[in-house]
Design brief:
48% of the residues lie in helices and 13% in strands. It is α/β, with parallel strands linked by helices and 447 residues long. Bound molecules: 5-phosphoarabinonic acid. The site of 5-phosphoarabinonic acid (PA5) has 14 residues, from loops.
Length: 447
């Protein structure tokens, strides 16, 4: 079971201050549970673990996996951006063998790669180089069905698949995940006869990892989605409890208390490189949910010990506006013991007989103590190991804590008005029909 620990904050806050924030967090939780707060039409994610485990969605995703496997598909291109990308990317980075690409084929599952999360021409061309050598299928994901980056990528990949296999076969190799009724992707899918999975109206992008948005790519890559949902279900129950024992209440309370004490930046830390994209997913979840109305903790992330040799100096010694939350993994899935060396020229025989993970653990503990001494409060979230179950519990825990935390902060966690600004400029610069006035104005501005 996921555990939250805030012992590393003791020297920065007192008990009365913390209790005050627990009260705020419990009120925020009650608003979330009663569905009376801002954005309350976007709370469909709250019961996804229990509802999905009881439903047929995972079976339907497995049917796609089996149909594509029968065709010999060995490359699945998953197209999406933001919440329609980061959850699946995070899960696959965590679960895949680190060197899966070089070991390709060994697991007997297709390689899953992502597109539509950038507009780099070089990326597109290199993706096509890969696709040219593979047996390809595609999942295109966009809730709105109108987001530019995935739409451009899909146009390229769709044409590629149609050219390679013909239109009829392409329709069997493309699956769309989108709104039930609205958007260009929905109409295009209906017209082309693609199988579609629905993202319900009441689930926003960054809260959608436990919908087909995350479930389909994770199942296609061969992972146990039911285990992930069971882990999430454990947190669905634990994080609904209206008590101080609720880990989401504790985390939301402490991070807001620290924010109000001037700790404006929270760094999500992991000593497991496989969790790098947990940091990316978490940054989107918290950044888009909380960063508005001139407020919000700035979410950052580091992977250690790697980043101790780049960001470590700042964290230890730079401006004192930081707090850290470490995602601690209790057990490594693999073991490697450091052997003794007769000559001991490197002076490392003091480590002989120890596991590499013991060194990693001592680095983690030593770093946390050093950062407390340097004025950086430490929270930690521990999971037993990296697997589907524990990832599911992390996903749900962070989502629930995010809703509570944003309500404490006094913002609507479920909208993202700021994301529109760049799009308007981009469309004006690209001379999209309907943007004539903005095109004129922006061209004046950059003359
Ligand atoms: O959290 C969000 O709502 C956003 O990050 C979206 O997921 C992102 O913009 C992609 O949107 P869409 O799925 O509509 O293409």
């Amino acid at each position: 079971m996921l555990k939250f620990n805030m012992g590393g904050c003791n020297s920065f806050v007192n008990n009365a201050e913390y209790e005050n924030y627990v009260e705020k967090a419990l009120s925020a939780l009650s608003v979330l549970e009663k569905e009376t707060g801002a954005g309350n039409d976007f709370l469909g994610w709250k019961h996804l673990p229990s509802l999905t485990l009881a439903g047929k969605l995972v079976d339907e995703c497995e049917a796609v996996r089996d149909a594509w496997s029968a065709k010999g598909v060995d490359l699945v291109i998953v197209i999406g951006i933001g919440g329609s990308y980061l959850g699946a990317k995070c899960a696959l980075e965590a679960l895949n063998h680190t060197f899966a690409k070089s070991l390709a084929g060994k697991r007997g599952m297709p390689e899953v790669v992502f597109a539509g999360n950038n507009l780099s021409e070089e990326y597109f061309c290199e993706l096509m180089d890969l696709a040219a050598q593979k047996n390809v299928a595609c999942v295109v994901i966009s809730k709105s069905g109108t987001t530019t980056e995935p739409a451009v990528a899909f146009r390229v990949v769709k044409q590629f698949i149609e050219n390679k296999y013909g239109k009829a076969e392409a329709a069997e190799r493309i699956v769309a995940v989108t709104d039930a009724k609205r958007g260009a992707l929905k109409s295009l899918s209906d017209q082309e006869g693609y199988k579609t999975f629905v993202i319900e109206d009441n689930v926003g992008g960054r809260f959608s990892v436990l919908t087909p948005v995350g479930i389909l790519p994770i199942v296609l890559a061969g992972y146990d989605m039911r285990a992930m949902l069971r882990g999430a279900l454990e947190m669905e129950k634990a994080c609904a409890k209206p008590c101080e024992c609720n880990p989401a209440v504790q985390y939301a309370a402490m991070r807001n208390l620290l924010y109000n004490k001037g700790k404006k930046i929270e760094i999500l830390v992991s000593f497991q490189p496989k969790l790098q994209y947990l940091g990316e997913w978490w940054k989107q979840l918290y950044g888009e949910s909380e960063g508005k109305d001139g407020k919000g903790i700035f979410p950052a992330s580091v992977i250690c010990t790697t980043d101790l040799h780049s960001m470590g100096q700042y964290i230890q010694d730079g401006e004192r506006i930081l707090m850290e939350t470490t995602v601690t993994v209790e057990q490594s899935n693999r073991q490697l013991i450091i052997e003794a060396d007769e000559q001991n020229l490197d002076g490392l025989n003091f480590l002989a007989g120890k596991r590499v993970e013991e060194c990693n653990k001592m680095a983690e503990l030593g770093t946390q103590l050093a950062h407390i001494d340097g004025g950086v409060p430490q929270m930690s979230i521990s999971i037993e190991k990296i697997d589907e179950y524990n990832l599911g519990s992390l996903f749900y825990f962070f989502e629930k804590a995010c809703g509570i935390s944003a309500y404490i902060l006094g913002v609507n966690p479920f909208n993202q008005p700021g994301v529109e600004a760049y799009k308007k400029n981009m469309f004006a610069l690209l001379e999209k029909p309907g943007y004539e006035e903005q095109t004129k104005a922006i061209k004046e501005r950059i003359k």
